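User: Hey, quick favor. My workstation is busy. Could you predict this chain's structure for me?
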Amino acid sequence: MAIINGDSSTVVVDAVLTKKGRELLAQGKEYFKITKYAFADDEVDYSLWDSSNEQGSNYYGIKIENLPLMEASTDGNLSMRNKLITLNKDQTRVSVLAGLSSTINLNGNQESTITPGTNSGVDDQTGYTITLFDSTAASIEASGIAGHEGLVSSSGVVTTLTAVGTSFRIIAKNQASLKTTTIAIQGNESGATFIITLTVNALEVLPDGTVNTGQTSGI
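Assistant: No problem, here it is.
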């Protein structure tokens, strides 16, 4: 969803429903109820803040305010990459996720374990939410949070997988061609986010004509 200022008196809300959202809407308003939402500022370039603007403090952020907004999109690879969070009033620093690599490279059937940590430790009890934006690249398994063990939800045309836990296994699927997608990890209490690029290599055809599926290969 995108919120666009048409003029000084008009605000246009551009919303695109996912496949699941359209299904619920078709069932009636008693089924289509928005209970959770998030805000993001992916298109905002804060480096444009200009405290030296000679027109005064009301114009320090004029370039930011005039930035064009992205159109609504259901593709998690393109939108909601920088979610806004709410912090405690007395918090003096922003939490960040640690112990993670920005890239994971796998062959088919290989796996990698992701175990996030938060520098402030605030996510120790509530854990993390992981989102894999293309289920054709890999599957995920989550552990560590009671009540969420083995629970993976899906959404979207290109199926997005989401799970909650403190540790996650990423199991790559065999690919006929190189596939790249994105994994997003967010602290459930801190709101801190980390983005990982997942690359799954294409199947290797061996000299004898057989295919190397990666089943006996290490990471």
